[in-house]
Amino acid sequence: MSNTQPLGRQDSLITLQAHILEQQARFPEASGTLSWVLSALSISAKIIANSVRRARLDDVLGSVGNENVQGEQQQKLDVIANEILLRTLGKREGVAVVASEENEEPVLLRSVGAGKYCVLFDPLDGSSNLDVCGGVGTIFSILRYDNPAHSDNGWLQTGSKQVAAGYVLYGSSTVLVMTIGMGVDMFVLDPAIGAFIRVAEKLQIPSANKSYSLNEGNRLTFPTGYNKYLDWAQANGYSSRYVGAMVADVHRILLKGGVFMYPPTKKAPNGKLRLMYEANPMAMLIEQAGGKAMATPQQRILDVTPTAIHQRVPVILGSPAEVDHVLTQLNAHP
Length: 334
Ligand code: P6P
Prior knowledge:
The chain contains seven helices and 16 strands. The protein is an alpha+beta fold. An eight-stranded mixed β-sheet has the order 4-3-5-6-7-8-9-10, with helices on both faces. Strands 12-11-13-16-14-15 form a six-stranded mixed β-sheet, with helices on both faces. α2 (about 35-55) packs antiparallel against α3 (about 75-90) and α4 packs across α7 (about 320-330). Residues about 1-5 have low confidence and may be disordered. The structure holds 6-O-phosphono-alpha-D-fructofuranose. 6-O-phosphono-alpha-D-fructofuranose binds near residues 125, 128, 215, 246 and 262.
């Protein structure tokens, strides 16, 4: 089913599990390992969703009182979500390595070859929104990790090598959006039956929408081209929408169109967003949905060669026409 039909209408009840097996069946040589990994992510999402929705009742809001490897205040639910993912993925034989925003180094679970994949994730993106009941999410990226060449920092692969990518948005409903390279599919958790139900297949991002999303509070330290874009956009009647949680902002862009940016700033000269487990998975999803995802006017995010697991990268992604408006200004004002 394409998303030309009203979102949410489905001819038959297809769960995420059934969808994963449908996709696996298209690859007769598939061993089912990737399906098991995706299943672990689905279970993690349900458990994290429950923790997020009960956070104030269970008194697990607020920070743990220390900083994570990123130098950011670690929220209690960051730790809880991270442990849920480490635990569920650790039980899947196909997972050789897990890398998390919350862990300084990737965790080697099995030797190269024994496990087949590296799973990278931001367990609870935008967690500073939790206290005010704002949108938060989980972002994941899956790379192959199954040959000896991968043994030394083998997780440092370009985003174009991703096998799968996706996110879970814990918003007004719990939505899982993912791709294995054959288009973007969307699922909503039905709490009555505890299953993710497919509500859209082969999502296509709208080609244009006069809406931009970035933190204008950093405007004074943006490179000139970004400010020239903002002047142009505001002179052309654009609206501004910004949640401050990448998953929530990108989900809106995916469904409604527009452009999301995290430019370089004085505080974050390479931007704030992490390449391996934020920018790369979102870039794969946006490109699979017919959008554009750039780090600079000359370089796709998916072509950036990683040198460190937590490295940051500028992000400009969304509808092709809207990304091009930003690139036009950046090129005119290098
Ligand atoms: P700022 C959340 O902390 C996050 O990593 C992304 O989810 C979000 O897009 C960005 O940082 C928000 O950063 O500086 O605008 O608060």
